[in-house]
Amino acid sequence: MKVAVAGCCHGALDKMYETLELLQRRHNVRPDLLLCCGDFQAVRNEADLRCMAVPAKYRHMQTFYRYYSGEKKAPVLTVFIGGNHEASNHLQELPYGGWVAPNIYYLGYAGVVRFRGVRIGGISGIFKSHDYRKGHFECPPYNQQTIRSAYHVRNIEVFKLKQLKRPIDIFMSHDWPRSIYHYGNKKQLLKMKSFFRQEVESNTLGSPAASELLQHLKPTYWFSAHLHVKFAAFMQHETNSKEELPKATKFLALDKCLPHRDFLQIIDVEHDPNAGDSLEYDAEWIAVLKATNSLVNVTQSSWNMPEKNGLYAKWDYSVTEEAIKEVLEELNHDLKIPCNFTLTAACYDPSKPQKNMEPVHTINPQTTEFCAQFGLTDINDRIQQAKEESSGRGECEEEEEEEMDSTGSAEEPSEYNTDNSGLSCFNPDEIMLDEEGGDEDLSTCSVDPSPDHPPEFSTSFSDIRIMPDSMAVSSDDAMDSNNEELEKSGGSKQVEEKSSTERSLKRIGGDENGNSGVKKIRRRNQAIYAAEDEDKTD
């Protein structure tokens, strides 16, 4: 079957589906499935916009609300994961996944589904070491910390995925697995995105958690987005025994969704011709959710997953064939995911804007039904209970906890060693850059989707290597996949090093004219929301 893969959509659903229809009209290419690798932006109304971690001037409604309201319907089954620019309050309603609109399915914090026999997994969000070991405690209305931490990957999701034993065909993550750039055209990547050099050379670009999953799951395909550049790689995995057949992963990072960009990729995937056309639950994944249900945590406390170190009575939560069989029997061998989408919030009305609409914490009926069916903890219901129990503690205590959380002083060391001394304590999602750099196609396996040449995934991978264990997780872990780099002026002028304390004071204090006292900080993802300006300069 044909699968279309898209990078950061940023709410431009009309544009994305129109591109697919254009492919069909001009080249008779009709994908059976569309996968989106995060920054989907399922924004329903003005309240959702307030829950998206972007500057206010970039909060645009885009076109998802038309699909949410039923005005339009996705012409192809669409499955997506979350990124770091999302309506977090909306996606939080569906921690185990669910329909955000008819024919558009969200995989949840982490999830695995099947379509026509093809096994598709994914993990939402981006990696940040200081939130990695916390529970999913955030809920709207968010503050300046939780609006960001809400989309940070948690160790429990990685732990669940690592319990899987059966092969995965396709896996999606928003940020790249760390070290994957060593298996593609790294030279060309650094030529087009020179500000990646320091992170690439120090092996700190990307997510160590995703790298860990890549080594464990060894999927046939792995798709990512986030860095707004197209890049292909090929990784030959090590075998654990002589009997194990060699496995390899084709990795592809997709560009952002902008006009005149090659932001879609079409691949042919082997499927089961006898399977139905409905999206289905994955029996092993459901069994894993049931087995790990006792590990659900909705607090800010940092904690480690069980491991074989003598401290835990149980550390292996992988499931038996008998447990999988029990799931199948519970479902009467009907794995079809019910089309039970329901509206849970008012839909945006262009004729009646409501700029002061406030977000609320909502428990989605889909999640309630899913948890009841499989005996799972409804995370949002648990959060509501925790809020009610702690309501008498007073705002002062909550503010104290938030302050400790933001500084990290109350946390134990992460399982990924971290050195954040070179990063900004002002805003870890920002990067100092003079130029964003181009968004050229760095894929060795893509073609320009011109009217006479539709995109395909017919690749000749030339750089095949075995990934040593030492490269999987760097000891120098950054708070985000994007470190900061000082601007360069004149090519040779060096910037005098200053202490992190002095740097922080200047950012906060500024001069008497209100200037910050440091060079301009640009958000790497800021360019996404300035698509119109970018197109003028292309």
TrEMBL record:
Residues 396-405, 431-442 have a biased composition (Acidic residues). The keyword Transcription regulation does not apply. Gene3D superfamilies: 3.60.21.10. GO terms for biological process: mRNA splicing, via spliceosome. Signal peptide: none annotated. Residues 415-424 have a biased composition (Polar residues). GO terms for molecular function: metal ion binding; RNA lariat debranching enzyme activity. It comes from the Eukaryota. Residues 385-538 are annotated as: Disordered. CDD domains: MPP_Dbr1_N. Residues 385-395, 485-510 have a biased composition (Basic and acidic residues). Pfam families: DBR1, Metallophos. Keywords: Hydrolase, Iron, Manganese, Metal-binding, mRNA processing, Nucleus, Zinc. This is DBR1 enzyme. The lineage of its organism: Eukaryota, Metazoa, Chordata, Craniata, Vertebrata. The gene is Dbr1.
